[in-house]
Specification:
The protein has 578 residues and is of the alpha/beta class. The chain folds into four domains: 193 residues, Pyruvate-ferredoxin oxidoreductase, PFOR, domain III (Pyruvate-ferredoxin Oxidoreductase, domain 3), CATH 3.40.920.10; 185 residues, Thiamin diphosphate (ThDP)-binding fold, Pyr/PP domains (Rossmann fold); 50 residues, no CATH class; 110 residues, 3-Layer(aba) Sandwich (Rossmann fold), CATH 3.40.50. Helix content is 40%, strand content 20%. An eight-stranded mixed β-sheet has the order 6-5-4-1-3-2-14-7, sandwiched between helices. A seven-stranded mixed β-sheet has the order 9-8-10-11-13-12-18, with helices on both faces.
Amino acid sequence: MVDIQWLIGGEAGYGIMTSGVVMGKIFTRLGHSVFDYVEYPSLIRGGHNAYYVRASSSPIHSQKKTVDILVALNRHTVAKHANELSDHGVIIYDQDFKIDDIKLPPHVVAIPTPLVQITRDQGVDKLMMNTVAIASSLALFYHDFSVYETILNDAFGRKGGDVAAKNIAVAKAGFDFILKNHNDAFKEKVVKQEQKDVIIGGAEAVALGAIRAGLKFAAIYPMTPVNTVMNVLAMHALTYNIVVKEPEDEIAGINMTIGASFTGVRSMCATSGGGFSLMTEGLGLASQTEVPIVIIEGMRPGPATGMPTWTDQGDLRFVLHAHQGDFPRIILAPGDVFEAFSMTLHAFNLADKYQLPVIVLVDKYLMEGHATLESEKLRTESQNYKIERGKILTDDEAEKETDYKRYHLVEDGISPRSIPGQKGGIALTGSDEHDEKGLYNEEAEVRIAMMNKRYKKLEMATPEIPKVNTYGADDKTLTIIAFGSTKLPVLDAMEVLKKEGITIRFLQILSISPFPAVEVTNILNNSTKTFVIEGNYSGQLEGLIKEHTGLSINNHFRKYDGRPFYFEEIVEEVKKLI
């Protein structure tokens, strides 16, 4: 089995992000399972960037603690990441800086490489040393340059033959240098397998899911970690007739989304916790007016600006209780890139059918990480999806209305809605409590009827909402409970434990609201021990479980340093428990 983790580090501006994406593509085209993740500081310019790419001949879901190949574009990278190197690790670094005084783990091979010199020899910009570094890395574990050459042709071919040729030439020089001088420096070699997967990021999956769901309007003020959602939507806006708006702030963003949805088009906004703080008044407006909207909320550490470019799961309670008063909302929590795609699809149908806000709760680790996914699985999900708009009056139906009531008290709580401009479908909509016609009304019986109506919709929607996933053992055993991207290292930890003869169960919570109390209760009552893993300080998921089930969790593992969980940490914690 091959299991390699590659890391490139250096100062921002030297193509660290691009290099990581390219290395992920290389491993994917070699038929391997890939997961990557990037770490960078909250700076406009400069600072240290690090991009981790893990690849394996067997399925993987997350990064690992150790680095096998470290590419250092500056001296600081070696000093910062030396303690992460594995016993058989290799460092590729530019020969122009010295690392003799940096303590390295035993058996690590340091390879001074003419990264900058090759760019000079080839007559290209120094910034292209990252291209040399990628090719040099490739030569350590795979001896066919063509896989990288194809990627370079794909990327630069349309810019003209000269651009592609220069990139290929500089890359080939780096590849040949390692092949000639350090062919045996890295013992683990990759054997090409049949490629069945594509590599996709969480944010890309959300954006593609929205496009497939029929999105026509998106208002997104840029905030980490949802920027890529906006970028992908903008890239495809003309093809799919989508209006992508960058509003002046998040308040405008959610209000534009409500307005666009009110006119009858599928609409969404996306933000992180700080932006969602500004959206909370609009969230209540969407519920009171029964206008369907989808909100993507990407968690990162708070409070205030917090740590804008790191990961966290501390917004769970926030999105559950945001805005004054009681009103129904659906909150879905995908845990991997496929669920990010499929749950975004589902979110739009739920919002339209039940005329309420649906929040897709994600985090930086999921949104900015990339993973391989079976292309056929993605294609099948897309082909099987059917857009369901719910109770929207056709022009003919609206014209037949003689006394249209937008908030008609129907049995299922879902009143047929008209679209502005429809003859016979004229309606009033406002933020105050109202009667069936939308007229301002504070009578007690009206208030009770409208509150019951709004919550009846959530009751009707519950059977259609994904609740939980379970993995591993079915018998009475230790059960790990988690939500969101924590799923990824948990699955890898389970594989390690299984090989050691330890079988456990994993319960993934998919729906935060409505909470799947029955399903969770049944599983926890069939567990010898319970163990919640979540990325926040206060144990928000643990508290939510007790609130809805009355059951106390035996053990927990929490992380709130902005870093993701490692499967090795989870393995260690599980072994302590058993």
